[in-house]
Amino acid sequence: MNETRALFSVLKQTTDPVVVDAIEHLIDEGDDRELNRINLLNFSAQRQLDEERVIAGFLHASRLGLFDLTWNVLCPGCGGVLDSHSSLKLLRHDDYNCALCASGYEASVDDMVEASFTVSPRVRQIAAHDPKTLPLWEYVRQIYWSSGIELTEDEVSRLAEDATLASLELLPGEKTVLSLQLPNQFCVVFEPVTHAAQFIDVQGEPAQDTQHLSVTFDNAHGPTDTVKLRPGPLQLTIDNRSDQRVLPAVWIAGDVLHGMLGKRKPILTAKRMLANQTFRDVYKADHLNADQRLKITSLTFLFTDLKGSTALYERVGDVAAFDLVRAHFQALLEIISAEKGAVVKTIGDAVMATFVAPAQAVAAGLRMRTAMDKLNAARGSQDLVLKVGIHEGPCLAVMLNERQDYFGQTVNIAARVQGLSTSQAMYVTGPVLDAPAVVDVLQKASIVPVQKEAALRGIADKVVVYEIP
Predict the structure, then answer these.
(1) H/E run at residue 312
(2) H or E element: which one contains 467?
(3) Sheet with 249-252, side-by-side order of all strands
(4) To which H or E segment does residue 336 belong?
(5) Model confidence over 245-292: pLDDT tens digits?
(6) Burial 245-284 (b: 16+ CB within 10 A, else e)
(7) Cβ contacts of residue 393 below 8 Å, gap of 6+?
(8) Mean pLDDT lowest among 20-24, 66-70, 179-183, 219-223
(9) Continuous segment of H or E residues that includes residue 225
(10) Contact by Cβ (8 Å): 294, 392
(11) Half-sphere exposure of 347 (CA within 13 A, CB side)
(12) What is the 3-state secondary structure (H, E, C) of 397-447?
């Protein structure tokens, strides 16, 4: 316990003290469920804390060993956790399969990979550290479904009482026979430990004689089968041939189950984490392998550069120019972080940054121009003329030169758009301006964008761009 308190003292050196107090209270007073796969966005909302400060706090706490950071691959259909990895490096390229939805998916860091935090067993032992001890409903609540699924006590009770025909626990090698009465509804025999399912399409006239169905669970992830049965008596034989206990349940795939799965809370996605400055700074070695290519369907890139920086060095001298450029970098980096973005790299006097949403990038660009005006005013000159370009689209997250970077045409266009600026102006593309929140940002600033057509180097056709004067 004294060691844990010492870690909190260290944590307060890098983290907002209010966030540290909230984390400490959670570890001391939270129940087991609250300390497993913590949804940081929900944690922030409940305590009215800034999301970015909470994310930064948990990242630093995780680095100190207070929490374990895991990357959960989610099914977009049911929200189930298809696999969980301790590092993004372990994310597979092949499909992840959901038995409950009978579908395969390629993991997308946009919304299919969740970053979650669980208290370290060295700090406090919780039931989820030993999942094989959890009963069925706690297992599906804490292990199978992600932190994005709303599962209140009432909803779990409804699922157990109104939508479950039978449930049991079978140890390895055990076999049992259940007698059920099938309703005239679609049903599923689902097993969350081995991620296996058997669909039962119940229809037709009620059966007079007992029907029979056998389901076997093993260690293989086979395809989900569907059998047609009639309403009425069923003798269900369940055989556990796996090397672990299984928790099969027969669910009615009706309004109760679908309604529960349809309620989702926002989650902290891998895309947002990759675009988080603290993550890039703290987890430098935990990004990707050299041969990994993670697809991102939408990310916003902001490029900046100083106009006439070479002439600036000649005009004011190396020492003065260096101090001025360093002040410019410091201002840009603070603004990028404040607008929930991350610096990918600096190239000479230029900056490449990423944002989850276009509005964040546009807001950052406007603040950057204001910051340059203030720096110039303080010097009584116009030495700092910042060029800004913003574009949004798909890309690949990759490792280049031992650093997490991005690759693709979206990146190329963003860099070329920045090159269009000849004064302290900002250029954005159509996908950026089309984002509803961007319109709000510009309207609040009383800015009317000017549409133009531009030829971008390396791009075959002319591109519609918008100057933000």
Answers:
(1) helix 309-316
(2) strand 463-468
(3) 164-167, 249-252, 187-191, 196-202, 225-229
(4) helix 318-338
(5) 999 999 999 998 888 888 889 999 999 999 999 999 888 766 677 778
(6) bbbbbbbbbeebbeebbeeeeebbbbbbbbbbbbbbebbe
(7) 298, 299, 408, 409, 410, 413, 431
(8) 219-223
(9) strand 225-229
(10) no
(11) 8
(12) EEEECCEEEEECHHHHHHHHHHCCCCCCCEEEEHHHHCCHHHHHHHHHCCC
Residues 124, 79, 245, 185: is their CA dihedral positive or negative? positive
- 209-229: per-residue pLDDT in tens? 999 999 999 987 666 889 999
User: Which one is predicted more confidently, 200 or 94?
Assistant: 200
How open is the CA angle 406-407-412, to the nearest 5 degrees? 110
Answer yes or no: are the C-beta atoms of 294 and 397 closer than 8 Å: yes
Where does 107-183 show beta strands of DSSP type E? 113-119, 164-167, 175-182
Q: Using the predicted structure, report yes or no on whether residue 460 has a pLDDT greater than 70.
A: no
User: CA-to-CA distance for 77 and 36, rounded, in angstroms?
Assistant: 22
Inter-residue contact 226 to 186 (CB < 8 Å): no
**Distance between CA 110 and CA 276 in Å, rounded?**
14
Select from 415, 414, 420, 360 the least CA-distant residue to 392.
414
- Cβ neighbours for 154, distance < 8 A, ≥ 6 positions apart: none
* CA nearest neighbour of 8 among 26, 19, 24: 24
Tell which residue, 435, 373, 340, has the closest CA to residue 466. 435
Q: Which residue has the tokens 């990038």?
A: 361
Residue with tokens 């940081």: 40
pTM of the model: 0.88
Q: Report whether pLDDT(403) > 70.
A: yes
Residue predicted with more confidence, 314 or 60: 60
Q: Say how far apart CA 464 and CA 391 lie, in whole Å.
A: 11
Report the residue count for the chain.
Answer: 469
Structure tokens at 253: 């795939």
Q: Which amino acid is at 418?
A: Q
CATH architecture assigned to 288-468: 2-Layer Sandwich (3.30)
Inter-residue contact 404 to 381 (CB < 8 Å) = no
Residue type, 61: A
Residues 87-117: pLDDT tens digits?
A: 888 887 677 888 888 888 887 888 889 999 9
